[in-house]
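seq as requested:
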Amino acid sequence: MTIQDKFHKLQTIAEPYEALLFDVDGTLADNIHAHKAAYVAVSKEYGVDLDPDLIDETAGWPTIAVAREVCKRYNVEFDVEAYSKRKSQIFIEEFIQQTEPVEYVRQVLFENVGKKKIGIVSGGSRSTLNITLQVINVTGKYEAMVCAGDTKNGKPSPEPFLLCAEQLGVDPQKCLVFEDGDPGVQGAIAAGMGWVRIDLI
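struct tokens:
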């Protein structure tokens, strides 16, 4: 399927909805490999030889929650906040400027600006997200953004999605969520929203 075919398919799915909620890492931004590399690098600093598959499993989780999972899986103890800050630092310093958009997803966002409400729902930190969205030229194209720390629980909880719908003033059932991982899909379903896995179309 070509990029244009994927765009048309997503656009057709989006048609009945009033609001479109986009995940960022792996959905709007083609940067999961970079995030994995940053996680592996920071884990090494903490003496952990991290299996990058853990990052696929926890797609959409806030960084601090991933840090807790690393402690649990590898039976180690460290300051999860310090780990999270260092991971973000490595990602920003070494990888963020090379971020490319997932073109067919970004095209759907661009196509619907001014026609539907647009929201961003991510487990990333606001500071990192702002840079990523700037690099892929999406800044200013959305009306609401919910990220790590904005709700008590992150994905797979429905809380981030419900908060975004509230900020947009749209009924959750009239929202479509674009995701690339199971935790985000679980959150969307729990919020009563439509969803699409952009990596499986």
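Strands lie at 19-22, 29-30, 100-101, 117-121, 144-146, 175-179, 194-197.
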